[in-house]
Amino acid sequence: MFQNISRPRGRPRSFDERDALEKATQVFWSKGYDGVTIDDLVAGMGVGRPILYSVFGDKRTIFLRVLKAYAETKGALAAKALLSPHALRDSLASFLRYAVESATEEGSASGCLLLCTAPLVGDAEVRQFLQNVADAALALVERRFRDGISAGEVPSDFPAAVRASQVLDLVRGLTMRAQMGTSRKTLLNDAEEAADLVLLP
What we know:
The chain is mainly α. The chain has helices at 17-31, 38-45, 49-56, 59-83, 88-103, 113-117, 124-150, 160-179, 184-197. Helix 1 crosses helix 2 (38-45). The longest helix is centred in the C-terminal third of the chain and has 27 residues, at 124-150. Residues 1-12 have low confidence and may be disordered.
């Protein structure tokens, strides 16, 4: 008795969905949300207009998908940079260095999609997403400071919440300066000094 093996109808996709989203990231990053047209996305992502709409949706939907994928990837790498080193000072320096390296990555637009492009988009869902990302980052850095308190690396009255907020302000500043064209070498040096500053009593 033979089994009736059904085969998928239609032509198989000739593109990688994740790769297409990464290409969309570069389109939004280089032109800004308002400056991007559907034609830009069709050309940049390498897919036809019908496929773009059926698989990815409209421009707003694509942008939200790009933001979420970008935040997941960059967030995981940032967390690894922060949590891998054992010493608190090394953790902070690693975290700040990662921000600089990510913002000055060769072959990509300078800066950060989350910090330099997305905040300019007048969309409530985008703004809420950015707030959620910022809250999660703040909690992570504060937790690292509290681990440092538990390990005796900083005093028990160390203002963990305030310093965590300052670390993220430093990340934003370094990233914006990268977008303005400050060299990676200069920013990496500044990141090292900043790691010492946030640990001052």
